[in-house]
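name: query_chain
kind: protein
chains: 1
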Amino acid sequence: MDHAGQAKSESPPSMDPRIRDIQPGGGVVIRLEKAWGVWRRWWLKRFRRAYVSRMLACRRGDPTGVPHEVLDPRDLKLHRNQTDCHWRPEDDPFAWRDRLPFVRVGLAELIVFSAVAWPAAVVFSLCAAYLATGFFVRVGLGILASGCVLIGLGVAWFFRNPRRTVPVGMGEVVAPADGKVVGIERIDDPFLGGPACEITIFLSVFNVHINRSPVAARVIGIGYQPGKFLNALRPESSRENEQLTIRLEEEAPSNRRAIVRQITGAIARRIVCWVKPGDRLQRGEAFGMIKLGSRTVLVIPDDGHLDVMVRVGDKVRAGSSILARYKP
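structure:
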């Protein structure tokens, strides 16, 4: 390793103090989840003491950093980026949720929207069939019922979690998000230490919104910037919108650095990131998501060995599409 690479790898990891949980922008659903957690922990301590004792016996690490008691793995969901506490997969009775076709951090939204949309669809349908007397009233109720069905299906579609085949070639950089490439720009970046290539991906509401690591790397810093909620198609959204920045350093001997920036949009107002400084990510491994339409920006060194493999207008898939390749 050269001296510059050694100096980079020894830089201390950092976490923005404004990040207190995996969704720093807050929101109604995450507040409901936290309130549910308070009730659930009370119920577990009162009526399931044997279960609590068994879970505490196999808990690993110190839960310092979590603002409440940690009785089982569900108590870490919203604060896993604040602590090293964990359960081994074989000790976690909820590990099966990671194998669902929906992203785990979106299950609360699925439950909340389903609890509203599907019963409303049934009520409107029944009213149209049995209570409405006029033709136009029936049509209106039918439209409302159809709208509720579409909302329920749309939310389920949005939080889908498809499996991806990750390329294994040396020097390959994969897309951190699904969507359309809307910008490729050469810039100078102080964190990367010189010339860099900035690739911007726009995510529509129809794209998978899970973000994945572009390279095998260690997380060395996470920053958060509150901001506006401009339309993600507007270039100024990359500067002015709320965003979370993940700074990475490759595990390969080159120790190249990279930046992934999650940016909100006019509809997407919730950034989720569950990793913390010091975590190691495999190429294509999921580390967060943006809820609804948004932008994801990747910044990588342009060190003379970089070949950009995409053009503006190309559609890419997170974890599987190769954005760039470093020549040996």
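note: The chain has two domains: 3-20+165-326, 106-158.
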